[in-house]
Amino acid sequence: MAVLQCADIPVSQLSGLVAEVMWSADTLLLAFRTADWKFAPFSIADASWLDETSEGRIFSPSGELRWRLINDQFRLVYMGEDSVMNGLEDCSQELGNLTPSIKEFLFWGVRSDLEQEWLEQQVPQRFSYPIYGGQIERGRIQLLVEQHCDYSGIPRFSRYHSIKEVSGGSHAS
What we know:
The protein is mainly beta. The protein contains two helices and 13 strands; from the N terminus they run E-H-E-E-H-E-E-E-E-E-E-E-E-E-E. It has helices at 14-19, 47-50, and strands at 3-10, 28-33, 36-41, 55-60, 63-70, 73-80, 89-90, 99-106, 110-111, 118-120, 125-127, 140-149, 155-166. A seven-stranded antiparallel sheet has the order 3-2-4-5-6-1-7, with no helix packed on it. It has a three-stranded antiparallel sheet with strand order 8-12-13, with no helix packed on it. Strands 9-10-11 form a three-stranded antiparallel sheet, with no helix packed on it. The termini are far apart.
């Protein structure tokens, strides 16, 4: 069964809490500040940058830490395969009657000429996603989301799982 944990913490404590976790090599960071954002492989060197964010996620196939600034505190939610976050309340019983599944969502843009950039052409924008290694000509980026659904199929909890490049055809969406 998956682990679900939560807490409200002072803004100044996020970087320290994140630095205590042994994150896997495939962990990604997606976080936002007032006039800045970062979507890249997570490095512990990024931890101090997190205290200045308004929201974000650190995620990998084994788990996700999500946070959001509410007044002068961060609301944290961790969901994963194992408990890796210290000092958070265990809410795992909320997942008891839910069924997990993986859903796939396409990101914007189509890879341009096998460069490390994807172009979205309806609203001209260049994206650089943290996909390295295999390159697919005209490839798209797909986000895998783990959803925990109730008996009627309605998602009650979800977490980012991972991203991957997939064949994208000849058009941008």
